[in-house]
Amino acid sequence: MPQWTAAVGAAHLARLLAPRPRPAEPVRPHARRLPAYRELADGVRLLVLEGRIQVAARLPAERELALALGVSRTTVAAAYEALRAEGFAKSRRGAGSWTAIPEGHVLPSRSLEPLPPDAAGRVIDLGTASLPATEPWLSRAMEGALAELPAYAATHGDFPAGLPVLREAIADRYTLRGVPTMPEQIMVTTGAMGAIGAAARRAVGYGERVAVESPSYANVLELFRETGARLVPVALRERLLGWDMDAWRRVLRDAAPRMAYVMPDFHNPTGTLIGDDERRDLVEAARAAGTVVVADETMAELVLDGEEPGARPMAAFDRGGTVMTVGSASKAVWAGLRIGWVRTTPDAVRRLVSARAYLDLASPVVDQLAVAWLLREGGWDEALAARRARARECRDDLAAALRRHVPEWEFAVPRGGMTMWVRTGELSGSRLAVTGERLGVRVPSGPRFGVDGAFESYVRVPFTVSDPAADEAGVRLAEAARLVRSGAGADGEPTGLFVA
Q1: 328: DSSP letter
Q2: Which of 240, 312, 363, 442 is deepest in the core (most CB within 10 A)?
Q3: Integer Rg of the chain from CA
């Protein structure tokens, strides 16, 4: 299969390089302006590190970019030479230039691992976007499940599509949300990751392309890599204002990915909420391209401001099985309740179930009964209300702590979900993550959520602690930033761009 390579048009690159509003900086009377070629090279480098331009994207010819920017060709040539010298561009005679990440730097490859419980007293964990269980609803659900267990204990216990009672309850929930659904359209899985993995193994062959938002959820990116898929990143619009539909149409048309993975509801890591028009447009473009869209709705009901998310499920715009919707109980109730599901066509469910025999056979019966009890008896909505209140408190406390202790960092406060995407200025998010863990605060670096090393100047902050822990997290992150800025935070680590 030929390699698909993105190309950055000269006009598009000129728009990306246009000055963006930034916080006011103190005037330095004797500060010298950088040469034009240096400003251009720095701008392109930042676009690569922020994921606004893909790694391995073909850059415009020198003459074309010079015309688009209104500068001399000599300036562009010098900027390209500087980028090549720093490892952010490569060239081959007759083939042009393309973006790159400097060689010799290890990219993040491990999944995000939860902090061991015995470390909770000394480390503030901002690494995992999960809260403790919503009680007493989890315990009540388990009691209800145990009361119903004897009838199931008399069977073989393997239900590859899921317990009928749970499939019906999940289908009713979708119908309540405005998407009429039959139980035959639901397959219960072992968590949302099990659902995404089942869809990927069924629909994507080794070496085939999967289009993903850039940034995207780190563990899903690693899952696709492990299955042999080739990732095609599609950047969000400037200031995280939604999907860049021109970019999506171009990728769907030119790269012809077998699958597109998106999180339209309070996206992890950025918290972005996608509107109805963009959802409809993406489904239509994917249908025309023959691409399956996996819509991850694990955050959909975590609305923290207002009562409703203000957007319809992706499946509401689907007319022919283009969309596979993924859901889970982990965010609404507890991550330890390993129950997820896929909503798709009955025929696709049958194919997924048949392929499950050599994977995990089925999901735990007791956990399924507990989720069914919550959905049937009203406990789901009560647990969800408690989860929203707790996440809202943590979000507000963490945002206040960051503004207080690291006011130079930039972020938007999302109105739902569980994560904030924080730009750390010129500081390396990877070095901040390494230094922060030494100081007792755990935060994942931006490159974990990108493809090929993008987002070096970001960290993800989930809403998992409130004051006083939130304030202390801000104190420790500020100290980590001070150490990284001074160079002390890099002790023992390679110089240059370090991706942890």
Answers
A1: E
A2: 363
A3: 24
Rounded Cα distance between 293 and 259, Å, is 6
The average pLDDT across 254-282 equals 96
Q: Summarize pLDDT for 113-141 with one digit per residue, the tens.
A: 666 666 667 889 998 899 999 999 999 99
Q: Which two tokens stand for residue 352?
A: 């997924």
**pLDDT for 342 beyond 50:** yes
Beta pairing partners, 262: 295
Q: Which two tokens stand for residue 157?
A: 């216990």
* Three-state SS at 24: coil
Please list, residue by residue across 23-42, b when 16 or more beta carbons sit within 10 angstroms of its beta carbon and e when fewer do. eeeeeeeeeeeeebbebbbb
Q: Report the distance separating Cα 380 and Cα 73, nearest Å.
A: 62
* Beta pairing class for 124-125 and 441-442: parallel
CB 283 within 8 A of CB 293: yes
Quote the CA–CA distance of 206 and 220 in Å, as a whole number. Answer: 16
Which residues does 429 contact at the CB level (< 8 Å), separation at least 6?
445, 446, 447, 455, 456, 457, 458, 459
Paired tokens of 249 = 């149409």
Which tokens is 478 given?
């500020």
- Cα 435 from Cα 488, distance rounded (Å): 9
Confidence of residue 359 (pLDDT cuts 50, 70, 90): confident
CA distances from 296 to 121, 192, 261, 272, 478 (A): 33, 8, 7, 13, 33
* Separation between Cα atoms, residue 318 and residue 292, nearest integer Å: 11
pLDDT score of 10: 78
Return the SS3 of 413: coil
Q: What percent of the chain has pLDDT over 70?
A: 89
Please tell me the distance from the alpha carbon of residue 216 to that of residue 165, in angstroms, as a whole number: 33
Cβ contacts of residue 120 below 8 Å, gap of 6+? none
Q: What is the pLDDT of residues 200-209, one digit of tens each?
A: 988 898 899 9
Residues in the chain: 500
pLDDT at residue 1 in the model: 34
Phi first, then psi: give them for residue 325, nearest 5 degrees.
Answer: -95, 135
Q: Residue 488 has which token pair? A: 């002390």
Sheet of strand 230-235: strand arrangement: 186-189, 340-343, 323-328, 292-296, 259-262, 209-214, 230-235
DSSP string, 223-280: HHHHTT-EEEEEEBPGGG-SB-HHHHHHHHHHT--SEEEE--SS-TTT-----HHHHH
Output the CA torsion sign for 312, 324, 210, 285: negative
Average pLDDT, the chain: 87
Element (H, E) at 218: helix 218-226
* Rounded Cα–Cα distance for residues 32 and 21 (Å): 21
Beta bridge partners of 189: 340
Residue reference for tokens 């023992």 = 492
